[in-house]
Amino acid sequence: MSKLFNGQNEVRCRPVEFLGEQILEQIETGTYKPFGKHPNNRKRQRDENPVFNWTKRSIMFELPYWKTLKLRHNLDVMYIEKNICDNLMGTLLNVDGKNKDTEKAWIDLENLKIRKELHLQRRGDGSFVMPPAVYTLSTKERQGFCAFLKSIKYPDGYAANISNCVNVDIGKISVLKSHDCHVLVQRLLPVGMRGYLNNAIGATLFELGNFFQQLCSKTLKVTDLEKLQDQSVLVLCKLEKIFPPAFFDVMVHLVVHLPCEAILGGPVLLGILKGFAANKAHPEGSIAEAYISKECTTFSSIHLDGIETVFNREERNDDGGDHGSRLAFFSQNVRPFGLISRAPDVSVNEREIAHWFVLYNSFEVEQYVEEHKNILQNGSTCDTTKRQRDEFPKWFKERTNQLRNQGSPEATDELWSLANGPSAIVNTYSGCVSNGVQFHTIDRDNRRKTQNNGLVVEGEHEGRSMHFYRYLSKVWEMTYLFRHQVLLYKCEWYNTGSKKTCLMDTHDPFIFSTQVEHVFYVNDTNLGGNWKVVE
Q1: What does the H/E/C string look like for 378-417?
Q2: Which residues contact 21 (CB under 8 A, 6 or more apart)?
């Protein structure tokens, strides 16, 4: 390596990408060694300078279409991601056998005459000492990072329980699978290292995780992939300024080619195709036959009745589907589960707050809210928000009863039942399924190894849009006349604007299931205490 490095800045352009015909033309002009062990085979010397860099002729070029095929090699994104994760974890945590930060790597830097802070220091007795690098964690920091991973609780079905692979006492992580590394690189490693590495290294880890997040999306845009192509180069350059050259094996350099392959081949689906490879000796043919068989059975199962198929099998997180053409708040796609608890001791104030929230956020009641607001504004010049909150439910009930007595078609049974208010008894559940996602109350999550209580809501505060974060405390089911039911989430808000209190006292604790998105929280290793990071 030191013979090829001149210590100068690199100003050359990127290498030229050859077409299949050009590569084949170069290959045809060369002479190659016979395959396998042969007496005439010898290792190429370092001082040899061949015209082309080809050592053998691929048998694939005997296929007539191979030279015109744009995507000749489909790189496994998950495998590349796992190798990068192993390199990062081995180097940052100083894992024996996987650490790329070795004495030989520092000698290479000294030969290259770069990175003087990573040169071995000579002692008076002739021995060498290897000072700790900025990217290597101490024993205490390794234990802190392992404790961070041990404390994480993931949403249902999100990831395997990585805490089983963590040993906090010795600060070691072992037996990570491909999907574990997938979650680590994209989500956990950048967040967990915030409290132990400087900002430059932390920002680079975040950029690397963001790169793989966009690359592994289900929907890809060509314009975004073209930006990722440039971003991949910058991320690798930043990594080269941090880690020694030994860190950059061939797997790390393959990152540059992933956006281009995604443009040609589409989203990451190789994990599905790899599952079809039953015959390891002929994987391509095995995948092709299995894929055709799956397509045939899938097509046939559409026309089969009375048996369970992939098309009529009930989903694991089934929310109950559409409940008919009733009012929107009476036909929510929500399926509560868990032990039903009847709460007859719910205070009148809480029930009124919940009822006002249903009225104020119902599209069918919006015209009556505006009508009542105009009445209040004509008789007063002060702020009518609080007054409307107190007076509208009673006014709306009287207005609906009046329309019903007049036989107006506006006063439907659903609208009349809503105007008369909910029952005094409220059913509470420990969880529910909405839009294919499980939500648990925090009491239920405290007894489990998963975390499904985190919520985020987009709203407005002081004229600007912002996100509000909560955890689910209860699932309310309020019953109206004609057995109409409305399901609400009762939440506790996190106070993101104060350093003194963790939770925020609010008079608006309720939310519809359609207004929330699911998130989960992990500990903040940088700020510590009660601070959380949203994932």
Answers
A1: HHCCCCCHHHHHHHHHHHHHHHHHHHHHCCCCCCCHHHHH
A2: 67, 68
Q: What is the pLDDT of residues 422-449, one digit of tens each?
A: 988 899 999 999 888 899 999 999 999 8
Q: What is the pLDDT of residues 336-364, one digit of tens each?
A: 888 788 866 678 888 889 999 999 888 88
Q: Percent of the chain, pLDDT > 70?
A: 85
Same domain, 82 and 58: no
Note the pLDDT of residue 379. 64
On whether residue 1 sits in a domain, the answer given is no
Does 185 reside within a domain? yes
The verdict on 459 and 509 lying in the same domain is yes
The whole-angstrom separation of Cα 491 and Cα 440 is 11
pLDDT of 3 over the 80 cut: no
Position 193 in a domain:
yes
Can you say how many angstroms the Cα of residue 311 is from the centroid of all Cα atoms in its chain? 27
Structure tokens at 277: 């490879």
Q: Please work out, in degrees rounded to the nearest 5, the angle formed at the alpha carbon of residue 115 by the alpha carbons of 109 and 120.
A: 60
Q: Which residue has the tokens 């391509």?
A: 284
> Which residues lie below 8 Å from residue 340, measured CB to CB, with a gap of 6+?
427, 428, 429
Picking from 31, 47, 69, the residue at the C-terminal end of a domain is 69
Q: Angle CA(131)–CA(135)–CA(138) in degrees, nearest 5?
A: 65
136 and 190 part of one domain? yes
The reply to whether 357 and 478 lie within a common domain is yes
Distance (Å, whole) CA 386 – CA 364: 21
**Using CA atoms, how far apart are residues 120 and 104, in angstroms rounded to an integer?**
10
Same domain for 376 and 489, yes or no, is yes
Residue-number span of the structural domain to which 419 is assigned = 317-535
Instruction: Please give the model's pTM, rounded to 2 decimal places.
Output: 0.82
Task: Answer yes or no: is 5 within a domain.
Answer: no
Q: How many domains does the chain have?
A: 4
* Shared-domain flag, residues 102 and 206: yes
Backbone angles phi, psi at 355, to 5 degrees: -65, -40
Amino acid occupying residue 316: R
Residues 432 and 455 in one domain: yes
43 and 96 inside one domain = no
Closest among 429, 438, 442, 533 to 491, alpha carbons compared: 442
